[in-house]
Amino acid sequence: MADTYLQEFDDLASAFNAAWSGDTRIAWPNILFEPQPDENWVRFSVITGEAQQVTTGCPGANVVRYQGIVDIQIFTPRGIGTASANALADKAVAVFDCLDIHGYHFNRGYKVNVAGNAKDSFFQMNARIPFQRDSLK
Question: What band does 118 get if pLDDT is binned at 50, 70 and 90?
Answer without folding.
Answer: low
